[in-house]
């Protein structure tokens, strides 16, 4: 049976940067259509991940996976989930928004992901969720060196680059110390768990769906925390989030944030190394430079407690 999206005109969904996600149908027949033009193999991975976590994490139901052919791209069709994008809610702060409830609900998502273990850090290779480390850097230092000639990082001065490598050493030391004391846990990581990819229910302020799993992999339980708190320092949201996490290292909430920001350096470096323009790489580079020059993962270059890269 063909889903309701078959033969329907597609309308680009707000908020996406890939340009590959569309809305089909109308009313109760709406579906979301993701066209995998850049990475056709990822469609099967994303479909398997959504099926794996459904019931543990709020995600859309997979309706159909269309594998690529010689003339058509891979397509993933999923249900349309009602809700307000968290970045829009944070930017506008409507009367119904309860940041404490949102923080607790986000922690429920992180706790669920931290409970899905894997044997090693790796990327997902196929729809069976096989693991592959092909072409992946061995550590954060190698990742930084690989990205040095690219994007915004290519313009950094020698002193700033040297300070960045010192910051990388600090981050690797923090994560290594945690592995020694708490055990080196590898879990399912969404890896793009920012407010743009989170829907919340205006009636309850709970998370109604976690979207866009294209960067998900097996990795550190602190990665998603670092992503969530990358541009968000509002105590009204962050404190309830930290209070509700079950994976707590020695040192409590502050230690959690330090480890999250250490793990988030992987993403900040990748964003700063992107050659294309965009609000998120620009803000990530500004944050990374502030951390680098201060020698402090907690450094914050803005006067407000929140930065919203793009609300559309």
Describe the fold and architecture.
This protein is α+β, with helices and mostly antiparallel strands and 312 residues long. The protein has nine helices and twelve strands. It has helices at residues 42-53, 86-92, 99-114, 140-147, 158-182, 223-228, 235-243, 252-272, 279-294, and strands spanning 10-12, 21-24, 31-36, 62-66, 74-79, 84-85, 123-124, 131-132, 187-189, 198-200, 207-210, 217-219. The strands form four sheets. A five-stranded antiparallel beta sheet has the order 1-2-3-5-4, with helices on one face. Strands 6-10-11 form a three-stranded antiparallel beta sheet. α3 (99-114) runs parallel beside α7 (235-243), α5 packs across α9 and α8 crosses α9. The protein is globular, with a radius of gyration of 19 Å.
Sum this structure up briefly:
The chain is an alpha+beta fold and 312 residues long. Helices cover 38% and strands 14% of the residues. Strands 1-2-3-5-4 form a five-stranded antiparallel β-sheet, with helices on one face. Strands 6-10-11 form a three-stranded antiparallel β-sheet. It has a two-stranded antiparallel ribbon with strand order 7-8.
